[in-house]
Amino acid sequence: MRIEENRSDGKVKVSNESKRKRRQKKLLPVQRLYKTCKEVFASSGPGIVPSPEKIQTLAAVLDKMTQADVGLRPDMPFFDSKQAPIITYLHLHECDKFSIGIFCLPPSSVIPLHNHPRMTVFSKLLFGNYAYQVI
Fold it and tell me: Could you tell me which residues belong to the region Disordered (predicted)?
């Protein structure tokens, strides 16, 4: 960090580099996820899988995310087990390179096995549990 102290007004000036680093540290988890996706998928396209290093970088960001980071709680209407299990999708971002969204699944809801052709998919379970069945 560079600090310039030779100012006539006696104030200390912090360099732009220090300000940039502080801003980077203050990113909210969803902002960090967006920024990481933007970097990981910058040179990707349909059918192109990111390098193992980039996959690890994105996985590390997802590993740290919690339900509070995206403003979800188990007591929200999306997850009410007394109602018919309606799956809700919360859209966060979409561009030509990647999309970010959250599926809210009530207890006992089911998503059939399906494919995502020419896509690399990362998933994160924020709370609850899941089971999968191989047929």
Answer: 1-24
- What φ, ψ does residue 35 adopt, rounded to 5°? -60, -45
Is-above-0.85 flag for pTM?
no
Q: Domain span at residue 96?
A: 28-104
Q: What is the per-residue pLDDT across 25-72, written as a single tens digit (0 to 9) for each?
A: 689 999 999 999 999 999 887 778 899 999 999 999 999 999 999 999
Pairwise CA distance, residues 78 & 37, whole Å: 26
Let me know if residue 115 belongs to a domain.
Answer: no
Domain tally, the chain? 1
Strand 88-94 relative to strand 99-104, pairing? antiparallel
**Alpha-carbon 9 to chain mean position:** 44
131 located within any domain = no
CA-atom Rg of the chain in angstroms: 21
Q: Which whole-number Å values give the CA distances from 78 to 83, 99, 127, in the listed order?
A: 9, 21, 13
Residue 22 lies in a domain: no
Domain membership flag for residue 92: yes
